[in-house]
From TrEMBL:
Name this polypeptide is given: MBL fold metallo-hydrolase
Keyword line: Membrane, Transmembrane, Transmembrane helix
Species in which this protein is naturally found: Candidatus Gemmiger avicola
InterPro entries cross-referenced by the UniProt entry: ComA-like_MBL, Competence_DNA_uptake, Metallo-B-lactamas, RibonucZ/Hydroxyglut_hydro
Coiled-coil annotated residue ranges, if any: none
Ranges for domain Metallo-beta-lactamase: 75-266
Keyword Metal-binding included in the entry's annotation: no
Membrane-crossing segments per the record: 12-33
Keyword presence, Nucleotide-binding: no
Upper taxonomic lineage: Bacteria, Bacillati, Bacillota, Clostridia, Eubacteriales
One Pfam family it belongs to: Lactamase_B
Length: 267
């Protein structure tokens, strides 16, 4: 018996409409996940991948060390000091306490740092600027970036010492402003917010910084507390997303608010 050849089935109007509707729904879902993924009932791409058993790639410590940028956290006791390096460029964010100053310089030397393109003071507290005078004495620093400082803050003993050593060593001193950018290698360090305007607490004067290079981003909010974090969140929104986040104010409960963390969502 000869079998009849079946003619190819033509798409029906209902099928075409169904495909269009599916495409629109997928596009809408993609937009929703991109904008709100990980918040409330909306899953992130990473969560979806985990549920579906799809491996998720991302930079780990080795990748960052061998790639175009490195972020190094120095142990300076109850204080902060972070080195961002890319190519031949280096930027030191804060310099720990006075007691850790010599150790910080030794760690910089051990890391191969003999000069700094930029050193940033997030705010004028001793556990962040305490080692800056010693760094200026020991290592050539091209530019010192400070937050907007009041006359009283400039006259305080530790800030005055840092500014005097900057003058002695020929280091340029620049006052940070909102949206100021600093090139570090192929990446950019951006001052997202130069402190909370009219802050009633020195912690809320902290520079909020974001370094970005390709798909990598690092966020450092100094000691900014909840009020400053709210202002930062309102200003930047999802632009705060990052790969790496240094917990604000040494991980204190006065910082790292749910509002901020829901936007940052570090890896």
């Amino acid at each position: 018996m000869t079998k009849r050849k079946r003619s190819p089935r033509r798409p029906t109007a209902a099928g075409v409409i169904g495909c269009v509707v599916c495409g629109v729904l997928l596009a809408g879902a993609s937009y929703l996940i991109e904008a709100c993924g990980g918040i409330g009932f909306v899953p992130s791409w990473e969560q979806l991948a985990t549920w579906l058993g799809v491996p998720v790639g991302g930079p780990d410590a080795a990748d960052l060390a061998e790639g175009d940028a490195t972020v190094t956290f120095f142990d300076v006791g109850q204080g902060d000091s972070v080195l961002v390096a890319s190519g031949a460029d280096t930027c030191l964010i804060d310099a720990g306490t006075p007691d850790a100053a010599d150790s910080l310089v030794a760690m910089l030397y051990a890391a191969g740092v003999t000069e700094l393109d930029t050193m940033v003071m997030t705010h004028p507290h001793a556990d962040h600027l305490g080692g800056m005078a010693r760094v200026l004495q020991s290592i050539e620093v091209e530019t010192l970036v400070t937050p907007p400082l009041s006359e009283d803050e400039r006259a305080s003993a530790q800030v005055a010492e840092v500014l005097e050593w900057a003058d002695t060593t020929g280091t340029a001193v620049v006052t940070a402003a909102d949206e100021m950018t600093i090139a570090v290698g192929d990446g950019t360090l951006t001052v997202l917010m130069a402190g909370l305007p009219e802050a009633d607490d020195v912690n809320n004067e902290s520079l909020c910084l974001r370094y970005s290079l390709g798909d990598f981003a690092f966020l450092d909010t100094g000691d900014a507390e909840a009020d400053a974090e709210e202002a930062l969140a309102a200003r930047c929104g999802f632009g705060l997303r990052c790969t790496l986040f240094k917990a604000g104010h040494h991980g204190s409960s006065t910082s790292n608010s749910e509002t901020l963390l829901s936007l940052v969502r570090p890896e």
